[in-house]
Write a structure and sequence with these properties.
Layout (H helix, E strand, L loop, with lengths): L8 H12 L6 H15 L2 H10 L5 H8 L3 H11 L10 H13 L2 E4 L1 H8 L13 E5 H4 L4 H12 L5 E4 L5 H8 L3 H13 L2 E3 L3 H9 L3 E3 L1 H10 L5 H13 L8 H16 L1
Parallel strand pairs: 1-2, 1-4, 2-3, 4-5
Helix pairs in contact: 3-4, 6-13, 10-11, 13-14, 13-15
């Protein structure tokens, strides 16, 4: 991508001087070096975390702008006393999301839920469900090695439970308007195109998606759906639950309630 920069006469003369002095070979090189120095002096991580604290940016945006992994951002938030805005805000929301997952044929994953589910048996259970699961190419680029390996394993599964979406369009504007990462925005765009459910945990990402008419679900809802569908046992569900708590998720129920809630959701489906 090429960006055109307009300079007034004074600035252009100063650039010409730097080139004539032999310090740079071209004016473009001067501008690139100046931008690099500006970025080095700007506390981007602190600024993005400040935006996140105020609810003005998503979790993925913080990671992308700071060039940090999701685990590094979570660790940094814990050290700075910033509570992550992750997960559903009410039990009713979780139950509605689990029902939405039951009714859809297409589920698009944002990166963070994939990362969490890949650390426990939850992700490998997806092939047991009669649905098509997707992740965008943009989101695969931020997945850690272990998660990518789990994703590739699912892609190679005979049922091909998980596939990568390429060629997603129109997500850049969603990213800019919502202060979301490009990956989060691409997942929203893909879910809208597929008329499916977006699985995302960051509350700002979920809010932006809903404003655009996208149905959302969270990792706790996926956990509830897997247990209600009898493909995830309580022991494995507990492992996911403990992982969510350790990451600072907002969970509107306690683990002992999960089995009862799952039974209620399963009964509602049968009726």
């Amino acid at each position: 991508m090429t960006t055109t920069i307009e300079l007034d006469g004074y600035l252009e003369r100063r650039l010409d001087l730097l080139v004539s002095l032999g310090l740079y070979s071209t004016k473009s090189e001067v501008v690139r070096d100046a931008i690099r120095h500006l970025l080095d002096r700007t506390e981007i991580t602190s600024i993005t975390l400040g935006m996140y604290r105020k609810g003005l940016a998503s979790f993925g945006f913080c990671a992308e702008a700071s060039e940090l992994s999701y685990d590094e951002v979570l660790s940094l938030m814990q050290r700075k006393g910033i509570k992550p805005r992750l997960g559903p805000e009410s039990l009713e929301e979780v139950e509605d999301e689990a029902r939405a997952l039951a009714l859809t044929d297409n589920v698009v994953f944002e990166a963070l839920p994939l990362i969490i589910l890949s650390r426990v048996p939850g992700l490998d259970m997806l092939h047991k469900l009669s649905k098509k699961f997707w992740v965008t190419q943009q989101e695969t680029e931020v997945l850690p090695f272990e998660t990518r390996r789990s994703v590739l394993r699912l892609m190679k599964n005979p049922e091909k439970a998980l596939s990568v979406i390429t060629g997603v369009r129109g997500y850049e504007d969603i990213s800019v308007r919502g202060s979301l990462s490009l990956g989060e925005a691409s997942a929203i765009a893909a879910a809208l195109k597929a008329k499916g459910v977006l699985v995302a945990d960051d509350q700002r990402t979920r809010a932006v998606a809903k404003e655009l008419g996208c149905t959302t679900a969270s990792t706790p809802a996926v956990l509830l759906y897997l247990e209600a569908s009898r493909v995830l046992g309580q022991k494995d569900a507990l492992a996911v639950y403990e992982n969510l708590l350790s990451l600072g998720y907002a969970l509107p129920y306690q683990f002992p309630e999960l089995g009862r809630i799952a039974e209620g959701v399963a009964a509602a489906w049968k009726s």
